[in-house]
Amino acid sequence: MPEGYSGQGFFATSFDKVIGMARKNSIWPLPFATSCCGIEFMATMGAHYDLARFGAERLGFTPRQCDLLMVMGTIAKKMGPVLREVYLQMAEPRWVLAVGACASSGGIFDSYSVLQGIDQIIPVDVYVPGCPPRPEAILDGIIKVQELIGQESLRRRHSERYKELLNSYGIA
Fold first, then answer.
1. Residue 66, marked binder
2. pLDDT in tens, 30-57
3. Is 131 annotated as a binding residue?
4. Is 37 labelled a binding residue?
5. What's the DSSP call for residue 9?
């Protein structure tokens, strides 16, 4: 070891990378499917596309065990508080994937009863376009979430900017 080298900087950097690699290759998705995008997600889970190749084969249907919320389909305004509660029950760190036009922007349903994008009530990390999106697009969204997770610093969730983002959504 060189003289005066403590090794602390190397260890912290390597530890961030190891944790990022482990997180990105073991995503536990929580599907919140309400419409046709959910059917495309089912195809993505099937043998032909096989989402398990990306370390996301363990679907959880309880928010306390999952770290990726996949919102697929039309979200009515009455369902908004339920979706928000599901998001809040998830443990940190948590990520959100908005699948399809309806979850991203309300889609073709520009009416008083449809939420015009889930980013009005919870923060979204990755958007998947399409109506409905093909399974390949959903896989691409998962890969983008993995890239985000792998590059995310362990300190990001404790930063002032992240806390301000949560406060802007009314989440403390």
1. no
2. 999 998 888 999 899 888 888 888 888 7
3. yes
4. yes
5. H
